[in-house]
């Protein structure tokens, strides 16, 4: 046993424990908000008019390589969303009669939206529960962007990658 070591004695003062790492401070993270995600992506929202036909919508979806379009009225207000799933569902319901139909006849009218202050966790939960992959971001009645489930997953993966890099740097020094 090293001579510098002395076993604790009954009269010793208890040392105040200190640590730079604890479960509490490692588990506390600032809630990531939709505004953070939007800041890192193109905020252009591709819209289509209610009066446009499905062939026009399908062409935009193909050309822009996206899965949904925000539907707006003549005033530019959000009135619905048209997704690939909406189109496929309608094709199955009305075979051979779907393409001449308008966007308004096929869109989802009860659109679930989020705001820029909503957290990624809240939005992901809403998407999972509602079984949809696209959510318009609306703030003060104005369309601010579109969030997809892929955006949320990619943001979180990048965040985890950054955290792992920080931990490696902490360990290596």
UniProtKB/TrEMBL annotation:
Q: Where is this region: Disordered?
A: 1-24
Keyword Nucleotide-binding tagged: no
Pfam families annotated for this entry? CBS
The record's section on InterPro entries has: CBS_dom, CBS_dom_sf, CBSX3_CBS_dom, Diverse_CBS-Domain
- Which residue ranges run through the membrane? none
Which keywords belong to this entry?
CBS domain
Keyword field contains Cell inner membrane: no
Q: Where is the CBS domain?
A: 39-98, 107-165
Protein name (database record): CBS domain-containing protein
- Origin species: Tritonibacter litoralis
């Amino acid at each position: 046993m090293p001579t510098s070591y002395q076993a604790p004695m009954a009269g010793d003062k208890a040392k105040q424990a200190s640590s730079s790492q604890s479960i509490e401070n490692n588990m506390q993270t600032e809630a990531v908000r939709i505004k953070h995600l939007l800041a890192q992506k193109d905020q252009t929202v591709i819209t289509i008019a209610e009066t446009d036909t499905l062939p026009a919508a399908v062409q935009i979806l193909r050309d822009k390589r996206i899965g949904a379009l925000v539907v707006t009225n003549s005033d530019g207000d959000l009135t619905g969303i048209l997704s690939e799933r909406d189109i496929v569902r309608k094709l199955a319901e009305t075979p051979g009669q779907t393409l001449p139909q308008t966007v308004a006849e096929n869109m989802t009218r009860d659109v679930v939206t989020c705001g820029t202050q909503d957290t990624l966790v809240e939005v992901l939960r809403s998407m999972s529960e509602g079984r949809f992959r696209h959510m318009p971001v609306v703030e003060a009645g104005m369309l601010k962007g579109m969030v997809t489930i892929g955006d949320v997953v990619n943001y979180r993966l990048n965040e985890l990658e950054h955290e792992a890099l920080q931990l490696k740097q902490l360990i290596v020094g």
